[in-house]
């Protein structure tokens, strides 16, 4: 039986030490947070956790900023971490951005079957005074890892341009309302403020409870409905850099809805002065 896509902190504590269990820290932070995820991992981590280094799990040869890795790059990272095809993988983060969802998208894209996100992440784990460890865990020998298959859809700039005319897809921006409206300068140099024309805004944290866990399915459906997202058209999610857009995609997956990631997101669109930009609240384009 395949793992559920979410596991609780209680489940993980009860399974610590299982020989086939691999725990990965997928923390990542915005530059203004001035936080070093590797240092924080070394100071406080779940026992047995290995550091995924999500920031570097990208395709540096792509023109897309911080692009998703290639299959070869993903396989190499899994092999270096000692992950085997028989491993059961738990992904967690210690980030306000809930970056484990980005890792979820990558793992699913490359066909990994037995993996799940730790609901609530390290924040909830620490709040419940569960076991912790420190130091870098580099004890796992490298493995021969080869992925195959996978699910998940990606949109590129040309797809988003085409959608401006056709509106075949509903574009949903996961950034906070201030950044979506374009209130003030973007924190990235030479990136415009605002959003892709005719897109809707659903901040990623709207799908989370106060303790950082994902809302129950009925509440998730209500959140999407209240944001005007009725899934009558395919959904493309976007954000600042393709990270929190994955939080919305994961929440959609929890309620049986699929979607597409615009990987370049605003860091690509807003950096191109030839592209149309809207500011202010969402103009509305239907469901």
UniProtKB/TrEMBL annotation:
Residues 17-134, 165-278 form the Rhodanese domain. InterPro entries: Rhodanese-like_dom, Rhodanese-like_dom_sf, TST/MPST-like. The keyword Repeat applies. GO terms for molecular function: thiosulfate-cyanide sulfurtransferase activity. Keywords: Repeat, Transferase. PANTHER family: SULFURTRANSFERASE, THIOSULFATE SULFERTANSFERASE. This is Thiosulfate sulfurtransferase, putative. It comes from Aurantiacibacter atlanticus.
């Amino acid at each position: 039986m395949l793992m559920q896509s979410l596991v609780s902190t209680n489940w993980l504590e009860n399974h610590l030490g299982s020989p086939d269990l691999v725990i990965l820290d997928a923390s990542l932070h915005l530059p203004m947070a001035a936080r070093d995820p590797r240092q924080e991992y070394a100071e406080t981590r779940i026992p047995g956790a290995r550091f995924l280094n999500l920031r570097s799990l990208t395709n540096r040869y792509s023109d897309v900023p911080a692009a998703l890795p290639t299959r070869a790059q993903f396989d190499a990272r899994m092999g270096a971490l000692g992950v085997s095809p028989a491993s059961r993988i738990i992904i967690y983060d210690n980030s306000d951005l809930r970056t484990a969802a980005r890792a979820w998208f990558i793992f699913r894209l490359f066909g990994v079957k037995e993996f799940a996100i730790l609901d609530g992440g390290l924040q909830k784990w620490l709040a419940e005074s569960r076991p912790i460890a420190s130091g870098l865990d580099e004890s796992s020998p490298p493995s021969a890892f080869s992925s195959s298959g996978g699910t998940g859809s990606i949109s590129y700039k040309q797809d988003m341009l085409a959608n401006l005319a056709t509106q075949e897809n509903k574009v949903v921006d996961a950034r906070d309302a201030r950044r979506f409206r374009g209130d003030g300068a973007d924190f990235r140099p030479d990136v415009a403020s605002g959003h892709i024309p005719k897109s809707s805004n659903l901040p990623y944290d709207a799908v989370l409870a106060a303790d950082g866990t994902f809302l129950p399915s009925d509440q998730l459906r209500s959140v999407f409905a209240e944001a005007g997202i009725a899934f009558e058209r395919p959904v493309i999610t976007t954000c600042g850099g393709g990270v929190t857009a994955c939080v919305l995609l994961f929440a959609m997956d929890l309620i049986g809805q699929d979607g597409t990631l615009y990987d370049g997101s605003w860091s690509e669109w807003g950096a191109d002065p030839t592209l149309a930009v809207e500011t202010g609240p969402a103009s509305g384009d239907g469901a």
